# Entry
Amino acid sequence: MSEFQGKVAIVTGGTSGIGRAAAVAYAREGAKVVVAGRRAAEGEETVRLLRAQGGEGLFVSADVSKAVQVKELVDRTMQKFGRLDFAFNNAGVEQEPTPFLEQDEETYDRVMDINVKGLWLSMRHEIPAMLKSGGGAIVNTSSVAGVVAFPGIEVYAASKHAVIGLTKSAAAEFGKQGIRINAVLPAAIETDMYRRFVGDKAENHATMTAMHPIGRIGKSEEIADAVIWLSSRKSSFVIGHSLLVDGGFTAQ
# Structure
């Protein structure tokens, strides 16, 4: 029997891309999955995919930048399933490339509210639920932008650096209480966010591909596999770690 059998996972940003792939992966391993996001139709489609492979899931509409909605997400998880064992805090937004001196306060607030405050709020409510359940594992989505410079998207880069700081600090505080907290750092992954970032020009895609020594853009399922490993007992001695899953992007 899988170690995930009978356990419960929350996946924020589970309406598409990496979040959807991770939700499907948790369900495949035997976990019950609560899918959170702002787009109800896409969230229900993720749940349908879980159920199609025999899994059990629930969609909860939630904007992670709103404290009351994050609390409701965790409360509904506990009411429905009675426990919380895993959380993949994946909700996030990108920043349109813009010269630094032309970036505005509205962009800063939007990116930071979702990518940083949203993750902070998620952990604040997930951790008490996990402590009641006897412990658990949290995986946060950062990015290669959390460890290298990205001129033109400074706010996004700052938000992903912040995710790593939150991950390390929370991991150090709760490791002895049975909660392991780590981060996964993707490079370019074939998702809606990536397609918005590169646009329709073939040369933009070619440039991004060339930045990865593996010679291609990553797949959502490859990040999901890393999330499952970080959630499992196979990574039992891994705490506060930033796992690069980047096709060699940062190895150059």
